[in-house]
Design goal:
Elements lengths: L1 H15 L22 E7 L4 E4 L5 E3 L1 E5 L3 E7 L6 E2 L7 E3 L11 E8 L2 E4 L3 E6 L21 E4 L5 E5 L7 E2 L7 E4 L2 E8 L7 E11 L11 E10 L8 E12 L1 H7 L2 E7 L7 E2 L14 E8 L1 E8 L1 H10 L5 H7 L5 H10 L23 H26 L5 H21 L4 H28 L2 H16 L8 H8 L1 E22 L7 E16 L6 E17 L9 E9 L5 E2 L5 E11 L5 E11 L9 E12 L5 E13 L6 E4 L1 E12 L10 E18 L1
Parallel strand pairs: 2-10
Antiparallel strand pairs: 1-4, 3-7, 5-6, 5-8, 8-9, 8-10, 11-16, 12-16, 13-15, 14-15, 15-18, 16-17, 17-22, 18-21, 19-20, 19-22, 23-24, 23-34, 24-25, 25-26, 26-30, 27-30, 28-29, 29-32, 30-31, 33-34
Helix pairs in contact: 6-7, 7-8, 8-9, 9-10
Length: 706
């Protein structure tokens, strides 16, 4: 009920409250509703291409407008020309269900219709990768060692940053911020990351870089470089990340940029420090083309990427420094000169598609058919188990182990297991570690709960919530719930204070000609600034340190022949550093509640978000408290001479319900703006009354109690 009252008060405020020393009539209300005419469907957001790893499902969706209600019919095609309706696919989105490699390359579209007409969406292609693959554990660059390196100089600021959530779903995520990033004149890059690319949620940043040779003996191995950038975590404290699924990078070049590049265009990659520079294979674009103006690659790591041109001699040097198991792999790294070149090359190479985007390594002649890279990967995983997982487990199992050691062991087990699953490896260690991981998380949660019940802080509660979340994500039921954590750890209380400055102004032109004898034109202006501090207390907030400054003026110029009118003007000023604040009615109320707990970019709990709520006293409309003052009014005659001076009562009111919203721990600021039209006799159309309030909030945790 309080929320309803608050909403009603705000509505009344916006439509009826003039504030200050001015009467502001409510704007005229409109008439009744008119039934809308039928409109044909129009597509707002087209279905987007999807890339998944079998057997993960793919979901296509469309956004459309139109009236009356819309009907949807999805359809598919193997060639983009001949279409077949999909039975039962009649919603705004379509889920393919489990996929298999045989679905790779299929097209999907939707027909949207209603009684006013129909429209067919553009087609979206499905890319299905066979299960398996991936890269080494975090910290292992998934390519053979390479002697080539360059000096990388990043720009001071990132071009774009975006959030990628980690999940078991392999659907490619392409946030708007990661699409069409201009990395050079005539060059944009778009990024797509499957949901299972990274082990944890991450905020990533795209930063332009400049590449130079290491020294005179090691020059830049390119003729020219265009559009080089670094893809890395936005948090620079996070080390270089490898991917558990392939990152899609698509460069779009204008013809002018491609012509200016010259030579043989290539896509290159390197670690963020410029080491292990190499070319990367060009793969089919998301739309299925091989155009030289749109170059796509798929890589198993973050780092430095770009488009460059090479001479024949440089291409030979790159080939020598970059081991490959046949000559085609280097050719696959070279951007195609045209679609026809690519088509002819593919036709001449049996099995070429299978090696386009594989990490490089020479074929082992052993009967097993395992490549050197695969053997190296298996060895690296075994080394990671012995060097990282086992020591972390031993430390976590010690009697004096702390929460950080539990979390470190859990993360390393997660890393090792996920890499093995992606590569299709399994032995007796997997079952043993799975159970040990669950035991570890349960013991960690119990330990975190004990610490939280002793410390009674938001940080301890966040740590406990994080441990509980890990168990929940694994599908393990626990008698420790969000409610029991908050109850057991103790509910913190918070000190909330607000520093505010409100500027309330209007500027209205006046014109009255209904009675010729009293006709006049004029202008009325006012600017009132109030400021102060508010501290949330029970039951009524404390308002202190209030000041008010006011300046207002009115001018009236009589029309010719208006014998009943007297031209005059006045000005009013006030400066009061200690006004007596008066609350409306029984006073306004302020409170907060814990709305939710924040997660950082890695999915860890960091602290609570408070929901701040002010409610005005019943019958007070848009006024929480008043700031009255005394002002000096000076009146002038038609010649501008002072005719009289007097002291008048004036002031302003402040509505704290417009301050309602979410707050995090620490300091934060925001600006609240609202305005209403001023209407009435003698007021010219277009007059606006405005309130602009600058707010600085400070939220601190105080000694918590149960």
């Amino acid at each position: 009920m309080n929320h309803l009252i608050a909403a009603l008060i705000v509505a009344l405020t916006l439509t009826a409250c003039g504030g200050g020393g001015s009467d502001s009539p409510t704007p005229a209300e409109g008439g009744g509703d008119t039934p809308a005419a039928a409109t044909a469907p129009s597509i707002v957001t087209q279905p987007a291409a999807q890339s998944v790893t079998a057997p993960a499902p793919a979901t296509f969706s469309v956004t459309a407008t139109g009236s009356p209600a819309l009907n949807y019919q999805w359809r598919s095609s193997s060639n983009g020309t001949d279409w077949t309706d999909i039975s039962g696919a009649t919603g705004a989105s379509y889920d393919t269900g489990g996929t298999d490699p045989g679905m790779n390359g299929r097209y999907y579209a939707v027909v949207v219709s209603n009684s006013a007409g129909s429209v067919t969406s553009g087609s979206a292609q499905l890319s299905v990768q066979a299960s398996g693959g991936g890269t080494g554990p975090s910290g292992e660059f998934p390519h053979a060692a390479n002697p080539l390196a360059v000096t990388v100089t990043p720009a001071d600021a990132a071009l774009a940053s975006f959030f990628i959530g980690s999940s078991a779903d392999a659907t490619v995520q392409s946030p708007a911020e990661a699409t069409g990033i201009a990395v050079a004149d005539g060059v944009t890059v778009s990024l797509g990351l499957p949901g299972n690319t990274l082990l944890e949620d991450q905020s990533l940043a795209v930063t332009p870089v400049t590449l130079t040779g290491l020294d005179a003996a090691h020059p830049l191995p390119f003729q020219s470089v265009l559009g080089a950038f670094r893809l890395a975590p936005a948090d620079t404290n996070i080390p270089e990340l490898q991917a558990t699924n392939l990152v899609r990078i698509t460069f779009a070049l204008s013809q002018a940029a491609l012509d200016a590049l010259g030579g043989r265009p290539v896509i290159f990659s390197a670690r963020t420090d410029g080491t292990q520079l190499h070319l990367v294979p060009v793969s089919k674009n998301p739309d299925g083309t091989w155009s030289a103006l749109t170059l796509t690659t798929r890589v198993g790591h973050l780092g430095v990427f770009g488009v460059a041109s090479v001479s024949d001699a440089q291409a030979t040097a790159l080939a020598a420094a970059w081991p490959s198991f046949d000559d085609f792999q280097l050719e696959a790294a070279m951007a195609p000169a045209s679609y026809e070149w690519r088509k002819a090359t593919l036709a001449a190479q049996t099995g070429a598609l299978a090696v386009r985007a594989r990490p490089l390594g020479r074929v082992n002649a052993a009967a097993s058919g395992e490549t050197d890279w695969e053997a190296q990967f298996r060895a690296r995983l075994d080394a990671y188990y012995n060097d990282e997982v086992v020591p972390a487990l031993n430390a976590a199992n010690a009697a004096n182990a702390d929460i950080a050691q539990f979390q470190d062991a859990s993360l390393k087990i997660f890393t090792w297991e996920r890499q093995r699953q992606l590569f299709g490896l399994q032995d007796e260690r997997d079952a043993d570690l799975s159970q040990r991981l669950l035991d570890l998380l349960k013991r960690g949660l119990d330990k975190a709960m004990a610490a939280c019940s002793t410390e009674h802080t938001a940080a301890a509660a966040a740590q406990t919530l994080g441990m509980a979340r890990q168990l929940a994500l694994l599908g393990v039921e626990s008698n420790i719930t969000l409610q029991s954590i908050l109850d057991g750890c103790g509910r913190s209380t918070y000190d909330v204070s607000v520093t505010w400055t409100q500027v309330h102004s209007w500027d209205a032109s006046l014109k009255f000609d209904d009675i010729p004898a009293n006709a006049f034109t004029g202008r009325q202006q006012q600017n009132i600034q109030t400021s102060g501090n508010l501290h949330l207390a029970d039951p009524n907030p404390d308002v202190t340190g209030v000041t008010i400054d006011l300046s207002a003026s009115t001018q009236r110029v009589c029309a010719a022949g208006a014998y009943l009118c007297t031209s005059a003007s006045d000005s009013t000023t006030a400066h009061d550093t200690a006004p007596t604040v008066g609350q409306c009615g029984s006073g306004f109320f302020g409170s907060y509640s814990v709305e939710r707990w924040n997660l950082d970019a890695r999915g860890h709990y960091t602290g609570p978000v408070l929901n701040l709520r002010f409610v005005n006293s019943f019958g007070c409309g848009g006024s929480s408290f008043n700031v009255p003052t005394r002002a000096t009014q000076t009146n002038y005659d038609a010649n501008g001479n002072v005719s009289s001076t007097k002291t008048v009562g004036t002031g302003d009111s402040v509505d704290t319900t417009t301050w309602n919203g979410s707050l995090s721990l620490g300091s934060s600021s925001r600006i609240v703006r609202r305005s209403v039209a001023i209407t009435g006799q003698a007021i010219e159309p277009g007059a606006i009354e405005r309130w602009t309030t600058s707010l600085t909030f400070k939220v601190t945790e105080v000694q918590p109690g149960k």
